[in-house]
Amino acid sequence: MTKGLGNYYRRLSGAEFIERMVPHGISAMQLVGWRHVALLRRGLIADYQRAGAVPTADDAFNFSMWRGYLSEPDVAEVLKWFQAGGAEIAYIHTSGHASPADLRAFAGASCPKVTAPVHDVRWDEESHGFGAIRHLADAEPMAIP
User: Is the pTM of this model over 0.85?
Assistant: First the structure.
């Protein structure tokens, strides 16, 4: 876990959360010279640079969201950082927002005991057909038995 990410989660969830997560993560220092997949946002670039983990021609940057987000300053800065290092750039859209009808069909096919929306927008209006819905606050954990 990078210093910046650790500080963010300490403020958000407390030190106990960090202690539970550290064994499951890798530090920026461990990225140097190894083959890893890392999720990156602008706020972590300084941590990676301090650790010597900077993009090179041996690296790849995969942008998997809507390309329109590339015009956002925070996203554009990450892309430019990878371009400056000569990394291969790929655009593979893997995310998106499914329609309520598609989500209902998925829930019907998978028969979940409970549905926990990640983006909790308009679920009160569109909740019919889902069965039990569990609304979670940001950073609220949910135990899955």
Answer: no
